[in-house]
Design brief:
This is UBR-type domain-containing protein. It comes from Anopheles atroparvus (European mosquito). The chain has 407 residues and is of the alpha+beta class. Helices cover 30% and strands 13% of the residues. The strands form five sheets. A three-stranded antiparallel beta sheet has the order 4-3-5. The chain has a two-stranded antiparallel sheet with strand order 1-2.
Length: 407
């Protein structure tokens, strides 16, 4: 840290740069690593989970009109909507790309031009209009100076400020894997049966061999009643793990808990079953889904609420993020590669690199400050223009530099 005219000016080393780059790559891979950046996902149908974007350049009406909301996959955001105003939606489940489809008739998809079927199963929440949380505000919010983490509900997939979750008492969200917002707790009342019971049982559960449970209800002998305690239950600005998913035959092979919860969500929900529930959002520990009852009645209940994805391991964000991390791991650490390359440079070249990086960082900070002051959205074109201007200045500086003579 260096003092300059009474103000602090910070400088970084190349090692700092490489570590920061590695952290950015890890975050990027968590969001994008499980998605295809080269091929439109439309032909794959409703993908279990993928990174999505909403293009406000192509469909500006989406800001005010719910019927105009649409989403495009990662590859289309790069190939068909380059330099457009895009809303990053993180990941969504069971979605088919809208680029060039019925919802975006004025757009020609460069990757997959023929998209004749309407994506009737797609669901569009307020995020596709650039709004989030129960406060219905954009993110980042130019009028909100309160630092607050946002967390995604695993059911409606909207994002909420922690302070707007309507919690009866503060929770340390770092110890939990998934969150269900207060609205969804009312929409999906069967969750109330499990509140306060899973954490207790999770500490006692001993997972050993596997059992098979019919999740379709086709095997009447196996599903006429709720499973016995020995045989019940398998298994994200926050979502995590599910143990297993239905196979093509409708039979799930899952880990058996010797202390599984003896709970069934069959309606009507009794007062005693819900005694651990207090109105508002709920947080759930890692692996909680393995305790969900899979008897015939409960599976029909999940189907009725269009929530069968709870039994699909690929639905969880943790599953998705692990795929991205594995892909990144195969390429090796950017920090290790960068340090190896840096070690091959002479001292003078290293100093020049550090100097230019710090200069670029300061100039970029000044450039972006203008957008903050004017409350403008920074687009890719703005960043491209900045670096083009910086390169021009560098060329002119070299051209006008006094000649150097060796002695």
């Amino acid at each position: 840290m260096e003092q300059t005219d009474g103000a602090e000016t910070s400088y970084v080393t190349m090692e700092d740069v490489l570590k920061e780059q590695e952290e950015l790559e890890e975050t990027s891979q968590a969001v994008l690593g499980g998605s295809d950046e080269k091929n439109c996902t439309y032909s794959r149908g409703y993908v279990d989970r993928q990174a999505l974007y909403a293009c406000l350049t192509c469909v500006p009406e989406a800001r005010a009109d719910e019927s105009k909301r649409s989403g495009v996959c990662l590859a289309c955001s790069l190939q068909c909507h380059d330099n457009h105003e895009l809303l990053e939606l993180y990941t969504k489940r069971n979605f088919r790309c809208d680029c060039g489809g019925k919802r975006m008739p004025d757009v020609k998809c460069k990757l997959e031009p023929r998209k004749e079927e309407e994506n009737n199963l797609n669901k569009y929440n307020q995020n596709f209009s650039g709004l989030y949380c129960s406060c219905h505000r954009p993110y980042p919010d130019p009028d909100d100076d309160v630092a607050d983490e946002m967390i995604q509900c695993i059911m409606c997939e909207d994002w909420y400020h922690m302070r707007h979750l309507d919690l009866d008492e503060p929770k340390n969200e770092k110890t939990y894997a998934e969150m269900i917002c207060g609205t969804c707790m009312e929409t999906y009342p069967f969750f109330r049966n499990y509140v306060g019971k899973i954490e207790e049982q999770n500490n006692k559960a001993a997972l050993d061999d596997t059992v098979q449970v019919d999740v379709t209800g086709l095997d009447e002998s196996a599903s006429a009643a709720a499973p016995a305690a020995d045989d019940a239950g398998p298994s994200e600005p926050k979502q995590r793990r599910l143990e297993s998913s239905p196979s093509a035959t409708g039979v799930v092979e899952k880990e058996k808990s010797t202390a599984a919860l003896d709970i069934c969500t069959k309606p009507p929900l009794g007062e005693d079953a819900e005694k651990g529930y207090k109105k508002g959002a709920t947080f759930w520990v890692d692996g909680w889904r393995k305790y969900l009852c899979q008897c015939k009645a409960c599976c029909l209940l999940y189907k009725e609420h269009e929530a069968m994805y709870l039994l699909n391991e690929k639905d969880t964000v943790q599953y998705y993020e692990e795929i991205g991390k594995q892909r990144q791991g195969a390429l090796g650490s950017s920090y290790e590669r960068g340090m190896e390359m840096l070690g091959q440079l002479d001292r003078l070249t290293q100093v020049d690199m550090f100097t230019e990086y710090n200069r670029m960082k300061d100039r970029l900070r000044e450039h972006l400050a203008q957008f903050v002051t004017n409350q403008q959205v920074v687009t890719q074109a703005d960043i491209t223009e900045f670096f083009a201007k910086l390169q021009k200045e560098n060329r002119e500086a070299k051209t006008n530099a006094p000649p150097h003579f060796c002695r």
